[in-house]
Amino acid sequence: MSHIKVVEGSEAVALAVKACRPQVIPSYPISPQTHIVERLAKMVADGELEAEYVRVESEFSAASVISGSSAAASRSYTASSSQGLLLMTEVLYASAGLRLPFVITGVNRSVSAPISIQVDHQDTISLRDSGVIQFYVESTQEAYDTHIAAFKVAEDTSILLPVMVCMDGWILTHSYEQVSFMEQEEVDRFLPPFQPVNFLDVNDPKSWGSYADDDVLMEFRYSIHEAMQHGKERIKEVFSELARITGRDHGGLIEAYRTEGAEVILVAMGSMVGTAKDAVDKLRSDGRKVGLIKIRCYRPFPYEDIWETIKDAKVVAVMEANVSMGSEGAVGMDLKAKLSGKADAPLVIDFIAGLGGREVNEGTIDEIVKKAEEVLNSGLPLQESHWVGLNPTILP
Amino acid sequence: MKITLGAVVTGGTSLEYKTGSWRDKRPVIHKDLCKACDLCEMVCPDSAVYVVDKIYIIEYDYCKGCGLCAYECPTDAIEMVLEEK
After folding, report:
1. Topology of A255-394 in CATH?
2. What does CATH list as the number for A3-246?
3. What pLDDT score does A248 carry?
4. What are A268's strand-pairing partners?
5. Which residues of chain B have pLDDT under 70?
6. What's this model's pTM, rounded to 2 decimal places?
7. Which one of A206, A211, A223 has the shortest CB-CB distance to B8?
């Protein structure tokens, strides 16, 4: 049913988007996202994809066009990275509030200053509170599959929110891997044409995002929060529906990897998960009780599924490529907040790793696990995030 | 009243939202000075000035008291009066 090709990660995403039949694609180039929209531009120019391709003058405009076109009943898509995502921020908050179900690829890249084009999750994590659903992917194949699921999740009438598929820049977007592609008929059956609940119509004029005063704004916020919370079950259903078609199961909101009987459980997102799986395999073969949780869906935060997996562990080591400066890593904070007050909850330790493209290899993960085992033996939590591989000798 | 997804509403709902309470100064037209030139009607950002039989009426439910009409009036026929009792 499916066919297999070796493609660049960006091309896999472009082909996934094409198969979803988007009608409007505004784009503004920024590394490492550019190859995706470049490939889509070529498809439109060559007549392979019937869509309105809009070359805009900034990411702010790209986000504005995508919200307008989505409101005008068109399935819409764009991609960006780093500063580009930050420039979109204002519009993305508004789009979630307007309940516009478009899909955007957040190709992860560090945020300036100092300027860097290397990967970390600071850019997309900074959008975690916007009301945009966020998925993180481990591999090119998962990026392909998740984009197809993303449109279905976004457009579900019980959800109706923008969905951002976050994928690591360079490591995933620019490497060539074997990808198994779905047939167009399979995608069409899985994802029927976009049927918006509300849309802009000159014959039936409506106001969008009308003024909300102190008597109703909280209720608007709560309704988005609720759509996310209830969406957790729906997202899992969409993921499994797709997995039944493709035969590829990447997990639900999370994937638990060798967590049975684990005393130390690592938590990670994005491409570092693949490395962590290899590291866990080696540690397991040495008899160490180590497992791993991959967070696939970060917003809504899959606390319940994480809890089911970690409740018998002793230490949870969150390794994350972001930091809320002046506090800790975002995922660690989420988890600690939810575990607070729970009897017998494992200790959570937060590891900042891989900022600005700093390599996370098996050695890095060994170091994290060693630190976690130290905590396990002492029984004392770390008071602050541990910055893995930090070189204090070069600090000013 | 229930809220709607995306705060989407049909047209004309601003009629229900009376913004006149924002006003701290009220425009008062001195009819003896008014030459019926229409400028106040044109410049009002809230369409709160309208004309019935050449008589200018200010809709105080919606006038926010911005004073544009008084500023533009060529015969100074509109006076801004402090809203106090």
Report:
1. Rossmann fold (3.40.50)
2. 3.40.50.970
3. 96
4. A294
5. none
6. 0.91
7. A206
